[in-house]
Amino acid sequence: MSKRHRSDDDGGELESRRPHSRHRRRRRRRHLYVVLDDWSKGYSVYKVDVDGFDGDPDADLDDEAVRLPEPPVFRLETADYGRFGIFVAVGSRIFATHYSEDTNARAPVLMFDTVTGGLAVCPGVPAELCNQPMIFPAGDKVYAMGRSKIKMDARGESRKYLEELAADGEGSWAWSSSVDDRAPPPPFDVERARCHAAHPDGRTVFFSAHGDGTYSFDAGTRGWTRHGEWMLPFDGQAYYDGELDAWVGLWSGHSGRRGRVCSCDVVDPRGGGGGEQPPPAWKLAVRSHPAWRARSRFLSVALARMGGGEFCVVEWRSRRGVSEEELHERCLLYATTFRLRYDRDGSLEATDRRARAFTARKKSDEFEWSSMVLTGTWATTRRA
Q1: Which domain of life is it from (predicted)?
Q2: Residues 6 or more apart from 191 whose CB is under 8 A from it?
Q3: For residue 73, which of 3, 142, 179, 217 sits 20 to 30 Å off, Cα-Cα?
């Protein structure tokens, strides 16, 4: 894997000079945003300052767990909460949509900007995709992919769709189906899609699906390219890391080792010129997950990109001594920040690891722990 200097989102501290004034430093604060359905009418968005993490990531932090910062930065009230709520994060924005049991209803989309605190109403999910599609972020766009229950293809099967929600030059958001011709349907079983990763070219998204292999979608040409029968090694979303010049995500391997982070060479979006491309090289990171883990209490895990080459693994665990009936009501959120680098032997290693544990709960069994948005943003503060 090659290394490339990161030219954007590099974090750190900036200094500015002003005539006849002392130096002023700007420090970028890092925050993690977590969505919980912890109240009777809907969802809460919590803001966590990860710069305050000081725990040993390999220790049992259960007894040191603290409450998430109050009050929440935002609350979303919905009818029949928890049933079909979906949240995704793109940069500093959190997108929320909520599906009703009426499959013909157009699902509304709200956008909350974690930097400005603003709330915007985006166009609803296209009616063809209102049967609870998979909604996910990639690059600076939101995608919705699934099968329609109201439209069929030439073979009489439910039609597959991929729609893109993106901002235009004037800052308005629109779905691709409302501004141009729809893209050809995904050439794989959308219900078997396992992971996706945005290419650093800003226009291509890769997908891997069980039994179908790996494909990419070019948002510029609106076309699909097949790359091979192999699968990318990730579970869910992977992120591009400029310093590693590689994708980074959660490893999709052995279930007993869930939470391991891996990197993977970026695949050429041009394909193999008619033939299949060889699978990309990938590596498991050393020390990317806690050495201490109560496997029997493990619930779910997610990865967030914090910016500046930093990531955060968030793991949900049940508390010690909690009955099975209370598992969702009383849980722990373990958050560990780290950076990735290659050591002298070329192994991928997680460094600068710091952790903190929080108490958490949720009301609805329908709202999965893995559905909770995890997004990292930077807020610039000035110090004299």
Answers
A1: Eukaryota
A2: 147
A3: 142
DSSP SS3 for 326: helix
Residue 322 per-residue DSSP state: -
Question: Which DSSP symbol is given to 176?
Answer: H
Note the pLDDT of residue 22: 44
Neighbours of 124 (CB within 10 A): 15
Distance CA 234, CA 262 (A): 8
C-alpha 296/C-alpha 1 separation (Å) is 36
The distance from CA 99 to its chain's CA centroid, rounded to whole angstroms, is: 20
To which residue do tokens 């915007």 refer? 120
The residue ranges of every structural domain in the chain are 29-383
C-alpha 259/C-alpha 318 separation (Å) is: 16
Interval 147-193: pLDDT, tens: 776 566 666 566 787 888 888 767 788 887 655 556 688 899 888 99
User: Is the dihedral angle over the CA atoms 279, 227, 233, 283 positive or is it negative?
Assistant: positive
Q: What is the β-pairing status of strands 66-67 and 74-77?
A: unpaired
User: Can you tell me the distance from the alpha carbon of 309 to that of 341, in angstroms, rounded to the nearest whole number?
Assistant: 10
Distance CA 35, CA 44 (A): 6
